[in-house]
Amino acid sequence: MAKRVVLAYSGGLDTSVAVRWLMEETGVEVVAVAVDVGQGGDFEAIRNRALAAGAVEAVVVDARREFAEDFVVPALRANAKYEGKYPLVSALSRPCIVKHLVAQAREHGADAVSHGCTGKGNDQVRFEVSTRALAPDLETIAPVRTWGLTREQSIEYAERHNIPITVTKSSPYSIDQNLWGRTIECGILEDPWEQPPEEVYELTTPTATEPIEMVIGFDQGVPVSIDGRSLPLDELIGEVTRVVGSYGWGRLDMIENRRVGIKSREVYECPGSLALLMAHSDLEDLTLERDLSHEKARLEPRYADLVYDGLWFSPLKEALDAFVERSQQFVTGEVRLRCELPGRCLVVGRRSEVGLYDYSLATYEAADAFRHQDAEGFVRLWGLGVETWAARQSRRRP
Ligand code: ARG
To answer: Which residues of 224-254 are buried (b: 16+ CB within 10 A; e: fewer)?
Structure first.
């Protein structure tokens, strides 16, 4: 049996109750770890709440830059969108959080890690599979999956134990947020026929009044600048999110296949990630050779599945990372993004010193570099097989 547990702590109702529940029901000491991946919030207050709930230790880790550089970058380079749509917001943060849980477990001599996920979601899979990949010796404990408390009962439990929670006007929604976007579930959204009410949105409330253009600079597939201004990636993502979000662009409303076999209705706001993914793949169109581009596109859905399914730390994901990284060698250049009302964001231009677009080959102007005479023989051989087949049709039995 575990004696000391590192708990992934968000400061919300469930993980606050989990602190006390773990102590009371399993007799462990709890080290609460809040990992900042860009979800926002007052981390000093979160730390104090963990201590008030009974944690022996409460740690805040600022992992924003690391999350951007080590988790978002590989996914962006892989154009990773689950089921062709969802940019893997929560799925990307879990392995980053687990990395820090494991590090804190080592530092504080813990023998288990714990999380506040339910049994119906993907996040439990990501937390536990990632933990087993990084630290197979650590136990994993999932109190929320075990205790079977309703929300009302959790609130009552918190009150009974004087756990300071801030359930103000209780929101019916379940929210997860980080630099790469925001996820919204539950409440009225559980009816897939119902349109998401405007109140669920925070990052994509339209406030802009004029169109705007942004030039995103990329270096080997990594966004490095806005309008020529170099920015650390976490800040750059934040800025693109704010600008694009202010046009009301970047919303997704989808029915999604969870790893645990459930179809669920998910609403996402991902203005920054969707805009950067769009810009990145546009620059790839300009800079990747055709076969590489097509093969990469074939592997991308597989990559997204692996991340979604909690297999960030896995041999296939590592091997695909090597392929993707190599493919990005020349994905360097600039993309012009235009945002306009109502709710539009689009690529209107792209350029690259190392791009494969050759004006003198592509132009229809007279003085080009294309050898027109080569086309004739090429086309004849290209169609030779079909021509032969067609000529024999009359002679052959079906
Ligand atoms: N369906 C999304 C995913 O699996 C969002 C999960 C949101 N997580 C949460 N704890 N609210 O990645």
So the answer is: bebeeeebebbebbbebbebbbbbbbbbbee
